[in-house]
């Protein structure tokens, strides 16, 4: 391979038909010095002291490492994503350590701590994991294997709120780190709240089990505080789609969404990452009824749907118990509503298990139930009463 070397203005350039590496002008870099090293086992081995790294450790204390779970987006994409969501945070630099693994340095420590506290964001419906940098990390081989997550333990008996009990209970899920101040001060006893370093891979249980002081097995539901979606503040038309996640709901119905069929996947990917969903959309009708559920909690089978109802069979994963649920969004006009009532009557003839009917019927059973000044006609009252009477017969 022919190589031509030229020296010009302090810059060494090596040219070939394949590569052109360049040595930057030394005046632009940091001046270095020779430091004598000792021989050990016949080799020269340098010794780095704490004083040698203190300044750089302090410099990188403002940094976090990031990766997208089960994805390796290009640097330019992540750079645009981070700049889009940074808000009021002052970002100094965004660096790619290796494929799928990034280092972000903030202008001050407060911004780094605020971002680290939030923990998980979402990129293209996949978790965008954020962890604070520390000097023990080997960036070239580091992977985010766990993340501190706030976990709620609803209705945990107050006798288990001591540090020893909470440490044992929290260790079921991961490495317990601390409680929040309300749990520490015992001023809100609706639930205990623990910060636990939880492995990202593997099954996350919806309930925990432990033996109490009398040897009795106690089973308690737990609820990890779910992260907010980055897009939730820029899509007010969805309301707060993560209310279901924050309140630990596992099966919900959304009514009057009026979402076009071609936008289904885009909306659900942002609003319910990790959930499954169905709706009553057709190519000609915007979906007015949506249902969404957490697959680790329920199995849902849609048995019947129309422009006004979605009728489902739900199986609870942990108990294997089944029940039926029908979500309703009734039309405004009398003639349009009639098919819905006929569907419900037909369904009622075959019910042998628990059946729950939820939704907006645009109807009341008694005039006194009506709020506002609009006049309610006897027809609407009769429709509701007829169905109730039919169900009791």
From TrEMBL:
InterPro entries on file: DUF4283, Endo/exonu/phosph_ase_sf
Q: Which residues form the DUF4283 domain?
A: 58-140
Give one Pfam family. Answer: DUF4283
Q: What is this protein called?
A: DUF4283 domain-containing protein
Taxon lineage:
Eukaryota, Viridiplantae, Streptophyta, Embryophyta, Tracheophyta
């Amino acid at each position: 391979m022919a190589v031509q070397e030229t020296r010009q203005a302090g810059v060494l350039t090596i040219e070939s038909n394949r590569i052109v590496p360049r040595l930057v002008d030394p005046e632009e870099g940091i001046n270095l010095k020779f430091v004598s090293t000792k021989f050990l086992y016949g080799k020269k081995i340098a010794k780095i002291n704490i004083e040698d790294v203190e300044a750089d450790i302090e410099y990188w204390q403002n940094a976090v490492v990031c990766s997208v779970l089960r994805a390796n987006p290009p640097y330019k994409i992540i750079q645009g994503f981070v700049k889009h969501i940074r808000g009021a945070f002052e970002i100094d630099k965004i660096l790619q350590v290796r494929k799928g693994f990034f280092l972000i340095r903030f202008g001050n420590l407060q911004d780094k701590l605020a971002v680290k506290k939030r923990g998980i964001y979402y990129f293209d419906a996949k978790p965008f994991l954020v962890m604070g940098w520390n000097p023990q990390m080997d960036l070239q081989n580091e992977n985010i294997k766990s993340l501190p997550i706030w976990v709620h333990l609803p209705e945990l008996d107050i006798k288990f709120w001591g540090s020893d009990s909470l440490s044992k209970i929290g260790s079921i899920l991961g490495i317990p780190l601390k409680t929040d101040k309300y749990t520490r001060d015992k001023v809100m006893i609706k639930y205990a709240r623990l910060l636990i370093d939880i492995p990202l891979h593997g099954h996350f249980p919806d309930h925990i089990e432990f033996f109490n002081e009398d040897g009795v097995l106690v089973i308690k539901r737990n609820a990890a505080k779910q992260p907010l979606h980055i897009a939730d503040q820029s899509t007010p038309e969805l309301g707060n789609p993560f209310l279901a996640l924050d309140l630990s709901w596992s099966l919900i119905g959304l009514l009057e969404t009026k979402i076009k069929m071609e936008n289904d996947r885009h909306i659900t990917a942002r609003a319910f990452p990790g959930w499954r969903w169905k709706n009553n959309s057709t190519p000609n009708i915007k979906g007015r009824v949506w249902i969404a559920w957490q697959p680790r909690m329920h199995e849902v089978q849609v048995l019947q749907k129309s422009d006004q109802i979605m009728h489902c069979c739900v199986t609870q994963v942990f108990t294997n118990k089944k029940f039926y649920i029908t979500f309703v969004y009734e039309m405004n006009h009398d003639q349009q509503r009639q098919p819905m009532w006929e569907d419900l009557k037909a369904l009622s003839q075959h019910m042998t298990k628990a059946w729950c009917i939820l939704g907006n019927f645009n109807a009341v059973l008694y005039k006194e139930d009506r709020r506002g000044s609009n006049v309610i006609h006897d027809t609407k009252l009769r429709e509701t009463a007829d169905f109730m009477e039919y169900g009791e017969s």
